[in-house]
Design goal:
Strand order of the largest sheet: 4-3-5-6-7
Largest sheet: 5 strands, parallel
Structural class: alpha/beta
CATH topology: Rossmann fold
Shape: globular
Strand content: 15-25%
Radius of gyration: 16 Å
Number of helices: 7
Number of strands: 7
Order of helices and strands: HHEEHEHEHEHEEH
Length: 154
């Protein structure tokens, strides 16, 4: 499929590998999970939407985003968005307690936090009161978190 690696390497160096594949094989599955299949075109579009949502919430290149998520397409969307926007991504194991996750959130200086609603107890306890972090909840509502779909749909 790739006749010349130069274009792919250049795209990857700019954080645009997903966009590269979305242009060439838009309908090919990029993510297959229990929640469904996401094509390269869909992954690329949603990563773009998330970049815009994070920028609207004040994140800039070099800022950190923490991600506490189970195996879902949104995990890949956050990864692709962070690469594209020049954000530092710190993934949090979903087995962590709220206190452990909170320590990592503080240590990486996260300005954004995306968490799976299945992990609400730990995720909500990870964000200390008064700390300015843009929090998005995936696949359900969590107190103190904005719904992911609403954030990227705006």
């Amino acid at each position: 499929m790739v006749q010349d690696d130069t274009e792919l390497l250049a795209a990857a160096a700019r954080g645009l590998a997903v966009a590269y594949w979305a242009e060439r094989v838009p309908d090919r599955p990029a993510v297959v999970s229990a929640q469904g299949t996401c094509t390269f075109a869909q992954l690329n579009a949603r990563a773009n939407q998330l970049v815009r949502a994070l920028r609207r919430r004040g994140l800039a290149p070099g800022d950190a985003v923490a991600l506490m998520c189970t195996n879902r397409a949104e995990f890949c969307e956050v990864w692709a968005a962070c690469l594209r926007a020049g954000l530092r991504l710190t993934t949090l194991n979903w087995h962590l307690t709220g206190e452990e996750a909170g320590y990592i959130l503080a240590d990486c200086e996260a300005k954004g936090f995306v968490a799976d609603a299945r992990l609400a107890d730990a995720a909500q306890r990870a964000v200390p009161d008064g700390r300015r972090v843009a929090c998005l909840s995936v696949a359900g509502d969590m107190a103190g978190f904005e719904p992911y779909e609403a954030a990227i749909g705006g």
